[in-house]
Amino acid sequence: MYEIPVGSLLRQLGLGTLETLKLLPVCIGLTLALGTLIGALHTLRLPLLNQIITAYVFVMRGVPPLIVLLIVFFVANIADAFLAAIIGLSLYHTAYISEVVRGGIMAMPRGQFEAAHSLGLSTFQTLRKVIFPQIWYQTLPSIAGQYILLAKDTSLVSVVGMQDVMRIGKQLMQVTANPFIVYFFIGVFYYLICTSLQQVSIRVEDGMRKRYARGVTR
Amino acid sequence: MEFSWQLVLKWGPSILKSLTITVEMFTLSAFLALVVGTVVPALMRLGIRPLNALLRIYISIFRNSPLLVFLFFLFYGLPFFGIYIAPFWCGVLGITLNEGAFLAEIIRGAIQGIPRGDWEAADSLGLGRFQVLRFVVVPQALRNAIPAITGQLSIVMKDTSLMSLITLAELTYIGNFIYSRTFNITGLFIVAMIYVALFAVLNLAARVLETRMRIRR
Amino acid sequence: MKGGVLVEFKDVTKRFGDLRVMDNFNAQFFEGETHVVCGRSGAGKSTMLRCINWLEPINSGSILFEGISVNAKTAREVRKRVGMVFQHFNLFPHLTILRNAILGPVQALKESPREVIPRAKKLFDRVGLTDKIDAYPAQLSGGQKQRAAIVRALAMNPDLITFDEPTSALDPEMISEVLDVMKKLSQEGRSMIVVSHEMGFAKEAADRISFMDEGKLVETKSSNDFFENPEHDGTRQFLRQILQV
User: CATH for B20-168?
Assistant: First the structure.
């Protein structure tokens, strides 16, 4: 057992956290874009596409994210761990985001669609200009909740080979024989990320409420 | 990289053994997590302030940190202090505390949703606070929360896959193992399908339970 | 005046924030009497009733029930002897009405189910719900629900039963079935305090009637006197409005 000074310990762990922090924005952006697209497509009820999406969502709801990561890693034979992590996590969480978006769209009163169509707007324009601006407020808590889960799932990426904080933490713990400091730090790291996401969600919710409270008509 | 039925036959027995471990862990952890999730909000209703603060901290910590961190600490960290816990029990402990916190929030919300009139009627009969919770409030809260609870239980099922990372030979472990021996993803694929099947069963049970236990006012 | 003093309010004040719901309230309720309390909405009638069994705490003054001061410590004991019937029934929806009725005696009074169940069944007989005892509240009509709620209160063998606007949430055609039960109880000589607008019931069954306004007890008279010689303007006005309907 070596005695590693706390500063150096934290610095090494810090490098690991950077890897995790690089993952998050990419995954969030990807899942948001794809999830919105798929969610919207799901509401169109096109014959074959509908079944495919339903099956996809059902499978992702049943399969553990760890399995998804492993299959992506092995099947795709992806050399780059970072890429594997992104594909795996995004594949999994996009399904959930798509369900939230689909729920939001279906919660809209039919009158909104009818009014938009009667004005001559296409489906795409309707969604973009009329529906989405209204459902952001409703769906935000669920979406933020999903991203808190995503943040926690980033703790799994060492299985695809990433040198993230969990892998480094395990190595350091062997060396320093002090699991308390190591895992306390890691725990705090994730805790801060999750609570920050929660704060962001609350802040955005308040902002939206002020903007839309007066103007929304049903 | 092809699907091979031979592999399925060869590894079938091991997969089944791992399946039983997964199901055992799920059943035990789900039950214990439910106990925690019911007891904690009930305790919080007794109005003892230091206890409430402690419980709120517990809930916050476990809802906002990954289960894996806690598992690694239990399995890899504790041995440094001479405490050795078998991976199965690390899993049960971890899931119980982690998902227990989520269930506690769900059930707490359900308890708050019980109309004040029920509390008052129970109070007016001379029932003590614990009795009111036990006979009037919690039975209703649990039934009202069944959809949310079963949703959380399917997360418990997925949590069991994390035990593969602390050397427990459950489903995910065996899938991974088969790959490492054969470089064929058949094993993982079968495991994935088993998980989906387990989820389907859980889903069905949830729907049946929901309709049968629904409380109408 | 029938028996001794059962409930006594002495200079009771109850505030909700800045609003004084009961203002130096004084009153006496006697054993064996059927006492109806009426008044406008917001006069404090329901609050007064809920203070007796400490569902609402009071800010100053004192309430005596059977000589015991009613406070947070004695609340549970008092509640075992005071039955309450609520405007919105408040039956426990997850229990059959039989189980609703025996929950109190078994858990609070520590009686054995073997004793309680026959007693409860007899009570259900007397209110006309014999074939409904295994039904759940959601399966009953409003009138049936309220009768079941009355049985739940009676099963505790209370010394006093309080009724908080028991028929206000009922459809008109079901009001009489509940009032009939209440009239029977009154004839048996039970101590009852009833907050209600049903002046027909008051005329027939009440021993004394009180009028409350703005948190104060304005006037209390025996039933006939109340209708024939109301003293205060407020009472007269109220009677005029109510009896128009």
Answer: 1.10.3720.10
